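Changelog-adjacent note: as of this version, every example in the card shows the full chain rather than a window. The one below runs 364 residues end to end.
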Amino acid sequence: MKNKAKIKLCIVTRGLVHGGEKKFIFRLLKEFAYRKQFDLYVLADHNYFAFSLPIEPSHILVIEGSGKLTFDYLKSYLTLSKLKADVIIYPKNFIPLSHFLLPGRKINIIHDLAFFMTSFKSHSKVFAWLRQRAIKASCRWADHVVAVSEHTRKEIVRLLEVDRKKVTVCHEAVTLDSVKPSGLLDDSEPYFFCPTTMSPRKNIVRIIDAFEQTQSKTGHKLYIAGHFEVKKSHLIQRIAKNPNIKVLGYVTEGDMVAMYQHATALLYPSLYEGFGLPLLEAQLLGCAVITSRMSSCPEVAGKGAHYIDPYNTQELMDAMLLVSRDASYRNKLTHLGSENIKRFDWRTTADIIERVIHSFKAKK
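Full-length structure tokens:
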């Protein structure tokens, strides 16, 4: 990298779906698009960004119609070999091994190490083993690793045996656009809100257990947003029998904003998180937070949450009863939450990554 020349920076994305990772990548791209010292490129398997980012169309490199392996190991490699980027950012935990043959410094961003949490049995043993090997190699061979929380950084050092000095903490932040809701929400009755998936680490079974045992006392409904897999049909059938539980599926950003704003509380008693973006989304929109005192949740939610042992259903029940009945305590949580979110900012997030990039020049 020459001192006065722009740094040619490429961010590689593939398979973006709704959720925290997509929001992180989009906001990171938006920040770097306005930084004049960078010549920014995006490499993706679909044109997610054409109408939403101030990037020259010729700098959005799209490789469509490829399978995952073909994109990762062959086509993206060939495209990047022609681009000759100074720095390549991989924002989804993984660097294809063939990419280590490419010139340029490589930054691997780790959102969580869920594949190493085998006790949850979220994936087959073979698939989990393969992902573990790929993530471990990606972190060990990358020029630098970025972790989205201090909790995740400690896990990278402990589980992947990566030098602590090679890992930088870079928190996510929160921004929700003002988008008109579709009318999906019925806020005529009080409700708890739970944006989740059916992964065991999200603790959905205990959430439903706690709700069913308190619903007659709180008079609340439970709204669940997120992707539910067909293979978990026994849980779907259980939910379907309770008219006070409503599964919304994917929720647009406008509807998500409305859900947070009108909910009595966010239920987020996760067993494992790499960060936990819904905690900040709830706090931004004035929603009380009930969450786990495990993994990254206390680091993210700060003083603006009611903490429980996520393995203790009774503690979750007690929290739901307290927050639903005590308006003054609920208001205290929302006030502390509004103060907590001031610690998180997308510009700061990009600044930290930019400092990592400039550190490569200093080491030359």
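Structural remarks: The mean pLDDT is 91.
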